[in-house]
Amino acid sequence: MVEVVNLTVSAVAEAMATGLPVIVSNNVGIKDIIKDGKSGFIVPVMDTEILKERILYFYENRDEIKRMGKNSRKQIEKYSWERFGDKLFINLKQVL
User: Fold this and answer.
1) What does the alpha-carbon distance between residue 41 and residue 26 come to, in Å, rounded to a whole number?
2) Tell me: the pLDDT tens digits for 54-63?
3) CA dist list (Å): 66 to 4, 29, 38, 43, 91
4) Phi then psi dihedrals of residue 4, to 5 deg
5) Dihedral of alpha carbons 6, 42, 13, 82, sign
6) How many other CB atoms are there within 10 angstroms of residue 76's CB atom?
7) pTM, whole model, 2 decimals?
8) For residues 57 and 40, what is the distance between their CA atoms, to the nearest angstrom?
9) Where in 21-64 does DSSP place strands (E)?
10) Which of 16, 9, 25 is nearest to 75 (CA)?
11) Alpha-carbon distance 20 to 41, whole Å?
C-alpha cells in the first residue's frame, strides 16, 4: 500500500511540475500542497459525482486549465530539492 501512495504522490507532483492542474482525493498526503480551486481540486474519497463535476469543469473551462496549471507549477516549486537544500544549509549554519 505504501508503494501505491508514494507513486500517487510522485505522479501528482510531476503533473504539477509540468504545469498541469490536478484533481486528488482528500486522503492523499499531497493534498496539503494543493490549493483547492487554485492549483487543482481536492475531492472526497469515492465521491464520483464531485469528481465528475471537477472533470467537467476543466472540460467546459479550458482557460482554467492554463490558469490553474500555472498556479500548480508555482506551488510545487516551493517543494523542490534545491529549495530544500537551501533551507537545510541555512538551518545547519545557524546550529553550527
Assistant:
1) 9
2) 999 999 999 9
3) 28, 24, 11, 20, 36
4) -65, -45
5) negative
6) 22
7) 0.76
8) 11
9) 22-25, 40-43
10) 16
11) 12
